[in-house]
Structures are given as structure tokens and as C-alpha cells.
Design a protein that fits this description.
single chain; alpha+beta; Aminopeptidase; five-stranded mixed β-sheet; 5 helices; about 25% helix; globular; endoplasmic reticulum; GNPNAT1-like; Glucosamine 6-phosphate N-acetyltransferase; acyltransferase; Acyl_CoA_acyltransferase
Length: about 160
């Protein structure tokens, strides 16, 4: 057991996504969450720079295993600026996933805390997310409460122009 006052670095710190994280298994990790087709290095770099242009309004965070140097957890938050609530802001958490080999180490909670703290620091009056029913208990442990119903409308990807 590690001493609480130890000066050793934390094994699983949360940090922002970096451009080199694709080679550390970032896309493979996302594939454990949902369909995530392979993308080229150029496509990754282009999307990375596009998202980085939003500054603190769109943050992707990761946990890198300091031994394997693989990305083993991730999540993102984007800030929606609204007219309601005195031009308030809402944080939307998305794409939270922990590698199947690293579950049970509270990495998901660390990701959620990092993203929620970021939304709060940006002046958001709330942070929201959608999840599958079987994940409800996890998010309740993180302090979230069920509210409303999620609705989805999916588009035929073959008819969506690539921008």
C-alpha cells in the first residue's frame, strides 16, 4: 500500500488528449464504446486540430497507463452556450470509456470528476450526459441523477455530406 504522503507520481493521472495519443491506442479504446472505424493519421490530426480550435469549450481527457503507455480511459466534455439562465452554460459529457482490462480501478470516476470539474470551472450551471440503462448505477455513484428521457434520431451516413 502506498503512503498517502509519498512523493511518487500517481500511476493513473488524468490529462488532456495529445496529438500522439492515437499511437497509444486511443481509437482502439473508443472502439470498446461504440463503432469507431479506423482513421488515418492525417484524419486524426485534422480532427484533433479542429477540436483544439474550440479551446476550453471542448476537452477530451485521457488516462495513460504509465507502464504500458497505452490510453486506458477517456471522456470528453463540450460547453454549450445558451440564452436561458442569464446566458448560462451547460457541460455535455460524452464518450466515457475505460479499457476492459483496467475496469474496477475507479478510472471512470476520475474521468467524470475531471470533466465535471472542468465544466464547473467554465461557469456551467449543470453538466449532463446520456448513458445506457446498465450504466445508470455508475453515474449515480458519480453524483448524477436521472432526469427526463433521451431521444435519438440517426441519419443514414451514406447521405450525410462529409465536411
Amino acid at each position: 500500500m502506498q503512503d498517502q504522503n509519498s512523493h511518487e507520481p500517481e500511476r493513473f493521472p488524468v490529462r488532456r488528449l495529445e496529438i500522439y495519443d492515437k499511437s497509444k491506442g486511443f481509437i482502439d479504446l473508443l472502439s470498446q464504446l461504440t463503432q469507431c472505424n479506423p482513421i488515418s493519421d492525417e484524419e486524426f490530426q485534422s480532427r484533433f486540430h479542429d477540436l483544439a480550435s474550440y479551446g476550453d469549450d471542448h476537452v477530451i481527457c485521457v488516462v495513460e497507463d504509465d507502464r504500458s503507455h497505452k490510453i486506458i480511459a477517456t471522456g470528453s466534455v463540450f460547453i454549450e452556450k445558451k440564452f436561458i439562465r442569464s446566458c448560462g452554460k451547460v457541460g455535455h459529457i460524452e464518450d466515457v470509456v475505460v479499457d476492459s482490462s483496467a475496469r474496477g480501478q475507479h478510472l471512470g470516476q476520475k474521468i467524470i470528476r475531471f470533466l465535471s470539474d472542468h465544466a464547473k470551472s467554465m461557469g456551467c450551471y449543470k453538466v449532463i450526459l446520456d448513458c445506457d440503462v446498465e450504466k445508470k448505477g455508475f453515474y449515480e455513484k458519480c453524483g448524477f441523477k436521472e432526469k427526463g428521457v433521451q431521444m435519438s434520431l440517426y441519419f443514414d451516413r451514406s447521405k450525410i455530406p462529409r465536411v
